Amino acid sequence: MSTFKPSDASLDARRQFLKLSSLFTAMGALPLLGMQRQAFAADPNAPLRIGYLPITDATPLLVAHNNGLFEQQGLTVEKPRLFRSWAQLVEAFLAGQVNAIHLLSPMTVWARYGSQSKAKVVAWNHMSGSGITVRNDINDVAQLGGTTVAIPFWYSLHNVVLQHLLKSKGLEPIADGEPNEKQVKLVVMAPSDMLPALANRQIAGYTVAEPFNASAELLKVGKVLRFTGDVWKDHACCVVLMHEEDTVNRPEWTQKVVNGIVQAQAWIQDNRDETARILSKDHAQRYTPHPYDTLAQVLVPERLDRARYEADGAIVNKDWQEKRIDFQPYPFPSYTEELVRRLKTTLVAGKNEFLETLDPAFVASDLVDSRFARKAIESIGGMPVFGMPASYERQEIITV
């Protein structure tokens, strides 16, 4: 049975969750949305202000900044602002303090339809790049029954994929109380707190973005039970979110921002090792606190020990030849539609009645503005630049 006891870190995560939950309601977001309107009125030509968390999901935004790709587009850009929690990042975005962020894709659904925030997804930031990491003595999802597992947020692709796998083993996800042998308790926890919680055996595992899965492996406190990209093929985890005000009133500016992001993703394809060095704590920009070796484990495809992961079951779909993380910017409508359908059947804490009324096809066209990404992609040679078919349509593939 689970013996999870709230620590100072988990209590802080709880406070952050409650704060974020408030921001993603119409009433809770109202003061910040008022600040946002004032910010736009005061500075309609605001420079590019990027907000990010220190995870590999932010890679294209940071590479574009480091490589001067935004300046090459004629943009004025400030140094990206590092935030320690999703609550802080969202608060700054809603208040208009930053105008381009990466955000968990399910969170964008909650932001637009829960808080009525006028925000648009303009591109994907990456594909895959997450995993389910567990104690070294756990070898199967079924063994998670009666334990506690940490997630970064209820509205996350991590939560969606984890619950999909739990249900495939006859396990029920719960948010409160003590789990029985057929249940798994899910707790929201900041990524930086997950590793020590696993090492101290407060939790049986966690699902999160990289490099926190790689960190557990390198420190030998846990192992990857399954890569999320091996369950939902080429899924998006974080997407680029911008203010609708900018996409409508500054379309040329927005296009230049997206151009820089798309060019960064194309550059990353052939410069994986250098990308890891740019993001590392030893780089002059100090974008993240992570060492080069940990980041390279994730970003450099040659570092992936495919044979070991296939033997362990972390990789089941061998023919997919998935990279640990990959990059392509086009926001496929089929993904957004399937995400909305999945959210309707996924346990999420807090007020989520708005999900029941959402039409997947409507959300795919209303939440996402793909014209900027498509134009930017075409300008550099189309989808084959990213090793993808030329088509802007696909079918979602989800397995167990």
CATH architecture label of one domain: 3-Layer(aba) Sandwich
- Give the biggest sheet: 6 strands, mixed
- CATH structural fold name of one domain: D-Maltodextrin-Binding Protein, domain 2
| Tally of alpha and pi helices | 18
Shape: globular
Please state how the strands of the largest beta sheet are arranged side by side.
8-9-7-10-6-11
SS-derived structural category: alpha/beta
Terminal Cα span: 25 Å
Overall average residue pLDDT: 91
> What is the C-level CATH assignment of one domain?
Alpha Beta
List the uncertain runs. none
Strand content: 5-15%
From the alpha-carbon coordinates, what is the Rg to the nearest angstrom? Answer: 20 Å
- Name of the CATH superfamily of one domain: Periplasmic binding protein-like II
Could you give the count of β-strands?
13
Give the helix level as a range of percent: 40-55%
Structure in words:
- With 400 residues, the chain is of the alpha/beta class.
- The chain has a domain at 14-126 and 236-289 and 325-386: D-Maltodextrin-Binding Protein, domain 2, CATH 3.40.190.10.
- The chain has 18 helices and 13 strands.
- It has helices spanning 8-23, 26-42, 59-66, 69-72, 86-94, 105-114, 157-168, 191-199, 212-219, 244-249, 251-269, 272-279, 292-299, 306-312, 333-343, 354-357, 360-366, 371-379, and strands at 50-52, 81-82, 100-104, 119-124, 127-128, 130-134, 148-151, 172-174, 183-188, 205-209, 223-227, 238-243, 325-326.
- It has a 6-stranded mixed sheet, with helices on both faces. Strands 2-1-3-12-4 form a 5-stranded mixed sheet, sandwiched between helices. A two-stranded antiparallel sheet has the order 5-13.
- The protein is globular.
